[in-house]
Amino acid sequence: MTKILVINGPNLNNLGRRDPGQYGSMTLPEIETAITERARELGVEIAFFQSNYEGAIVDYLQQNSGGADGIVINPAALTGVGYSLGDAIRDAGLPLIEVHLSNIHAREEFRRHSVIAPIAVGQIAGLGWRGYLYALEHMTHHLREVGPA
After folding, report:
1. Residues 6+ apart with CB under 8 A from 4
2. Would you call 100 a catalytic residue per the annotation?
3. Which of 100, 105, 134, 142 is catalytic?
């Protein structure tokens, strides 16, 4: 069965109470429930991970990418500065879709640059929690049409 890692970076554990005007009112567990339901419909397995620490995400990728087929990631605050995260993603050699709840391109300049985007199959920004579902759907189709990296 196709397995997709869904990874969330710093502060996303505070969704639902963190600036709902920017990030929405759903909590991360609620978003994970929606992703799990859609994954079941698509016939894919999901593994979730969230950390506020870049090194923990790197460790997770190194330990779990071998058993996965693709990655959906919201790098959050690591988007523009997560160089070791970018290296770990490259080393994993898996197709990846970058997701952002808010439209990072309509926000402050420092949020607009992504060290992850050049590695990604695509980027979804500004579509709220549904962006994760769109990323999951696209990754599933990508893996079925193109195959793993």
Report:
1. 39, 44, 45, 46, 47, 68, 69, 70, 71, 72, 136, 139, 140
2. yes
3. 100
